## 1
Amino acid sequence: MKDTNACADDTCRAPVSQRTQVVDAPGTSATVKLKIDDHELNIPMGTTILEAARELGIHIPTLCHHDDLCVAGVCRVCLVEVEGQNTLQASCAYPITQPITVKTHTRKVRQARRHIIDLLLSKHYGECYSCFRNNNCELQSLAKEYGVDFFRFGHPEKPLYEVDRSSYSVVRDMNKCVLCRRCIRTCIDLQEVGVLEAAGRSDGTTISTYLDKPLGEVVCINCGQCINRCPTGALRAKDRTDDVWAAIDNPEKHVVIQTAPSPRAGIGEEFNQEPGTPMTWKMNTALKRCGFDKVFDTNFTADLTIIEEGTELILRLYKNLVQSDSSQPLPQFTSCSPGWVKYIEHFYPEYLPHVSTCKSPQQMFGALIKTWYARMNNIDPANIVSVALMPCSAKKFECNRPEMRDSGYKDVDNGLTTRELAQMIREAGIDLPEMPKSDFDNPFGTATGSGVIFGSTGGVMEAALRSVIEFVTGKKVENFYDHANIIPVRGFEGCRYAELQIPDEVGPVPELIQHLVPNWDWLKGATLKVGIAHGTANAKKVMENIKAGGKFSECHFIEFMACPGGCLGGGGQPIPTSPEIRAARARAIYAEDAAYGDAGKARKSHENPAVLRLYSEFLTNGPCGHKSHHLLHTHYTARGKYIG
Amino acid sequence: MLTTQQDRLMGEINELVEVHGHDRSALIPILQDIQSRYHAISDFTMQVVADRLEIHPVEVFGVVTFYSFLNEKHHGHFVIRVCRTISCDMAGKDAVAQQLRSDLGIDFGETTSDGRFTLEWANCIGMCDQGPAMLVNDHVLTHVTPERVHDILAACEKTFGPHTPQSDEEHTL
């Protein structure tokens, strides 16, 4: 049986003895007999009743249980009757270690579950029709499943808590909280950020930030993973759809939207499609019909990021290895994930010089739209409203950073999540899966497969390596990796490490960066060491490894993504999320990359004709040149983890 | 808080961590020691303790708010907790409580302005056969009568003279 339990690894806070364990000691029988309703079977020792029931297709309702998180057993909705036990047992937290007989829907069980749901509802303030989780709420579904037709234990008539809107990204409405503690387990175990925890005791328990401070004032990295795992509408992303509609409805405004690769792989789920149904070209049509003037592909600046960040890496390598100048130290860390950037600003500020100075693709695009694009099309940048469709809640914070105004205006006016855009599309009466296909708008229309895979963990690394390998060897990546698929950096393992051998024969330095390095002789036969981490808990492991002088400290380049699975598992993606859903989205993303190759289009960032045009027409002093430094690079703030 | 006070507090926390260990299970013993020394666990303390034990400040906050004997807000030198459960209630806890209120001039949940006494309710402390019962810090007092309240408070005052090491600046921590 598959072990989906996050408790099995060392991210769990519980002492080892209290974690769910699959018993596999020599000499003990590896399986145990279980009778559950009418089924009899043998299952591996230590399997929980819930896991066994799911395997058999027996439905047991759950609320606090989540496939990504360790067992909590706090909501009691999954109660079942175990023969010989006086009390009902929580099936999610009952590992089977001896033969037992379980009944999942006796009168006693049904009544207890109904009472528990009634109790949850007695503290849950909120009218379903004004809630963003309407029709996608686990509490609502449970109430329907158990036929709740009156409030046995009452229902709050007035909100008790003020809604916390202090953060740019996440809105907390504790009136809707049912104390399932999924957000706590997400924040502390899965992400190791530690913003939320239960405070108080008994009926005075609340989910609280440190000293109950507003979310905008604590160490929250805005990753939004808690939103994706909240069963109700207690946590949500800050909704900007009203601002975007207002801009669309204003005839004086030129509204452009850039769309990241991950929302396309996820938005289908909002329209009842299977996870991993790609919607790229249909979504373009839908966006046009919603009223956006231009629809651009963020992959264009993903490709640009690769050129800038790749050049920065080459420069750092040259400075450190040849010129013995360690002002810009190695390893270089990626800077595309705004959650990760805020994480390192809070928790490892002393390592900020390692972070690439490149802006994220979203912000690079924002800076170019209000400069290059505005100039080319004779549009006053003040009248451009630049919207970014992202799978991410942290992008909402990022576009509000004070340093992100290099175009002279706010580079990106509004960030939308995948969920918000799905809402806009529904509001416009558009059935997304039935849309005809259409392409992105020029001049940023052409992207490459490398840009697409930015959405998955390992994608930035793979895209960068495709370009760096070709730059240095002067040969096609396909000579080294079949179909340019750099498999060693793919996968879902939390922390990955890979080594790439640079051959003894190197090519000439490409024209684009000739003014920066004289030749490649210094890289002959070198071993390029790279690392990848996704989810900030894994990022923390890598950072601690670097601090201790472990193998990651010898890396040259490390990709960090704040969210599990990379952007495709972002905090702005459709709810729910699970390892299976994220894997399906990843398949959609890699399939789109492969489709670029099959269609004979470019799959490597440095082959993107639009990027090359940008360097010849606008950023004339090349990658990491003066102009690109002004528009495409940024600096960071050492925030520290002490909360003032 | 002055830097010197912060430094001193950090030094004390470091010593406590040496005594009780760096493991997260050392959290409660460390907090108990700080509570008995300072009669409060300040914001700064919680963050330093969290840092030393490599856990999150919000987890320390969760523990401090969970336990009645750990407090964020400043408590008096003597914390008097009167049992309010049924046996002590029937044995006459109300009269004792009223005497405490009038002698100290504060209500339950409050601290005297000189920072000496805090009055609190407690649930059963296991002295049901000897009620009314109450706790003065760690000491259990049974068969308390309104007449005895004066003596108890006087005894407390005696151990809290002007020459005790407790200084005013620590009250602000």
## 2
Amino acid sequence: MSTSLKITSATLAKDIRLEWRSKDAINSMLFFALLVVVIFSFSFDPTAEESRRIAGGLVWVAFLFAAVVALNQTWARELRNHVLDAYRVSPAPANPLFLAKALGNFLFVAVLEALMTPLFIMFYRLRALGPAWQLIPVAALGTRALVVNGTFFAAMSLRTRNREIMLPLLLFPISIPALLAMVNATQNILTGDESARFWIVLLGTYDVVFTIACLLLFETVLDAE
Amino acid sequence: MKRAFPILAVLCVAFLGFATYEGLFVAPTERTMGDVQRIFYYHVPSAWTAFLLFFLNFIASIQYLVRGNDFADRFAKWVAVLVGAAGCIAVFAIKPMPAGIEPSSVATTALAITGLYFLIRKYFPEERTDVLALVTAEVGVVFCTVVLVTGPLWARPVWGIWWTWDIRLTSTLVLWLIYVSYLVLRRFSTSGQTPSVAAALAVFGALDVPLVYFSIWVFRTQHPQPVIGGGGSIDPRMLHVLLINWLAFLFFAALLCWARYELEIFQRQVEETHVLESLLEPENKQS
């Protein structure tokens, strides 16, 4: 096993074990998303027709906000006892650490989505009129778009005052095209009016471009001192 | 700076006044829109200036990131050369250009990218590229704000609505949001680490712009098609006034950037001196 792979798997295993024991991120995300679902249901009348049109935006906004909760915790955990500083002075390359963090966040947000989807379907009486299997690539690519950039910006906002507020301020503007693609793809699939292909391709492009950018720039951000 | 700046400032004010006069009195009145159309002479030059400044911010940020690394520096140089070459080749290679795109503007833009890249590389040492990135973002946000304010002022009487989510409006708004978040990051970042973190964000923002544009592209556009180089036609006298205004705005923007640039360097020197002083103080007391 190469060194990078070892670092990635070790960090990932550590993060998963920590999360398994504390369940900090998952619990706060779940409760947050649940609150968003309930509050949104008061703001409009969730008939089947109406929700089909709005659900795409609703689901993704809920997931985006909930993901920020988890993303804020990923790096903060490493600041205690100067773990991150220790990592920086060690000869280990930076990118495996980033990959491990991004993978871990992807996993947590995916679990959240898997748990929340039945609730959404129940509360908003959702039924896809288009090809429902396409929701899976949309969810996977969309989550990746949020999480990869989110992990990167969370590392960036470590270097700022009031970093909890900083993360959404940095992440949301850059995520606008991805969010637009996710929302429209979901909406097209649910209403079945149009094909979602364009949006899925756009989402894929977004993921590729920004994953490369993150990997190229992560070392600069980690070592910024 | 001390002697040249007041002279240039007076010249700039005079030029801006002349351009305003041209826009308000000399340019012919548009047939359907009437005098409202005259806001065009502020709206369009501000937009062009803002985009140019954001582009300079991108180049300066790239340079800040690659300068330390020999390989990355050489790679970026070749990319800049290739962009220029590709623009020139595209003029000959893609024979029927997509509607609304002038071959000459493609070549000029591509060559301008290469030219700007090497000009900045030559005249700005490494730590100054960060100052350049900061001032271009700040002044760019100001001009972008002017665009976003004058747009609705014009749209209300002409379209009957203040705002619509069409491609140019939305992408300009997103661009504005991205650069405001850039300035917020700079503001809240603790001093020593700011430049490289901000440069990374600037690269992300610039990568985001084409994606924003394409993602909003699929919605139908309501904005008038660009009249310069686009399918539309413009009265040559209007074009003349527009270009005068653009020159005046560019002059103004350059002057603002220059003043801000000098101020920022001065401020950094002051901070540095403070740090040095606080380092020296304990020794003074001991002796």
